Structure prediction request, 164 residues.
Amino acid sequence: MTVVLLGSATAAHSRNVAYDVVLLAHVLAALIGFGAVGVAGANALALRRSGPRSESVRRYYRPGVNWGGRILFLVPVFGVALVQMSRGDWSFSEGWVTVGIALWAVVAVVAEMVLWPTERRLQEAVAEDRPVAAIRTQCALVAALSASLVVVLVVATVVMVAKP
Prediction:
């Protein structure tokens, strides 16, 4: 069974079902990862505004790994599989592939090195019921990083869809 997907505004590429499933997984991983990064910023703002006593804030900042955010690491796995499955239509030498991988890498490194460790510190602060004044800077950092990374992810999405 062959399904036709629009790869760009100018060309249609024939694909098989396996390709479509991997493409769907790639898009879903991107959306979940994108959402997790955005939610991190929204919750940091909520924590800054209402403090650690809010039930929704306490639920979000309960101790543990942000697994939704880690779904972001599946995006390039599925993306590489798509390039390999494309029957030569796409290659790693194409600019849009390189730019997409580079933008994803920026988001992944910043999230892993700064965003999620700061979120873990906020988890500790909420568990210890620290006053808002003690965590205001960390909340602002998570909110600013989240907003910046969402912008980078939007640019990466536009590049991946437009394939300039």
Observations:
- The CA atoms of residues 27 and 83 lie 14 Å apart.
- Confidence is low (pLDDT under 50) at residues 1-12.
